Amino acid sequence: MTFFRPEQLRQLRADMRAQDEDRDPFREHIWLLQQATQNPPGSRAPWVTSFSDWIFDLCVPSRPTSALAVGKRGEREIRAAFRQRRRGLERPRSLLNGEWKLIFEDPLQDAPSPEGRGAKKISSLKVGESPFWGIPDLVYRNINTGEILIIDRKISRANVPDYGWPNLKVQLWCYSWIDDWIDANEVHLAGEIWIEKGFEFVQSPTRPPQWRRGNMKFQRECLELFEAYGGTFKKMRPSRRDPR
Question: From the DSSP assignment, how many helices (H) and strands (E) are in the chain?
Fold first, then answer.
């Protein structure tokens, strides 16, 4: 079982700076927006995963419940393996060395309140008067530039499109507006894709799907889907402090 290595994350950042997303999408945005308009959600919970699950259901209407169980099991096994790997080192260290510092990791806790589950508030995104909440898997901060890198893990039995899946795209877009990192001059977003192979999970060899908060096309497309969900977007004012 492998994980993003420092050189891989450096390459991710270079790729994001070098290009914007011109690869073929899994679903054309116009088609997806039409589906979203014709099939409004049954409920509009202020949770990132409620929004992204709705987008997934628009793309794949018949999702087996076993897929959700596989995803949760895989996430816990990946986390356990990573912790075991860290215990085998002479001293603990984050996934990235040097300029990138791990500042948040999903605690995978069950609790009745968002705060109890380790959820982060997203004041820029609202459903009615309720702000959104979400729990990213991994968040890194560049100690030199203050840039943020958010990684979300996905478990898949299918081939991964170059552009990723729309649900992953909107999920990471929501995370990019988390209050704690609203001041970051750029937020990089990437999917860490794992595939089930036999009795274990291994990282997909394909290039991880990636986006940037500052990409206007990315912002426009995600916002259109969020508005179809019934949400509103208003960027909260910067707090004029370093993102943590």
Answer: 6, 9
